[in-house]
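Subgroup meeting minutes
Present: P.N., E.W., G.H.
Scribe: E.W.

1. P.N. recapped why we're keeping a running log of single-chain structure predictions: easier to compare across weeks, and new members can see raw inputs and outputs side by side.
2. G.H. added today's entry (128 aa).
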Amino acid sequence: MERAKILIADDEAHIIHVVQLKLQNGGFDVVTAMDGREALELARRERPQLLISDLQMPILSGLELAAALYQDPQTRHLPIILLTAKGFEVDDEATARTNVRMIMTKPFSPRELLARVNELVEQPAGVC
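Output recorded in log:
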């Protein structure tokens, strides 16, 4: 059985490292990006089953990345988990034009993130 591929986009290397390790230990293949533009290119090329993105990143923010992916028919259905800094609110209206399925606040539990990833990857496309 082919392992699901997860794309992680965050400009903080230690966050990428922690999430990558947890997901790889959980049985996923992982691709990483350090900014929104790189993540957009990788999403189009690598075709991951899920994106975990930081909200505040250089070049394209997590929301800008999510909107760009949603506008592209090839990546429109890519589910997204958005990571935000504590105290930073994300407007529901802003995520309405994206495929953001979940928002998690930093610091987060890697175990909880893995559980959410497993839930989203197992769901059929289009199911929230």
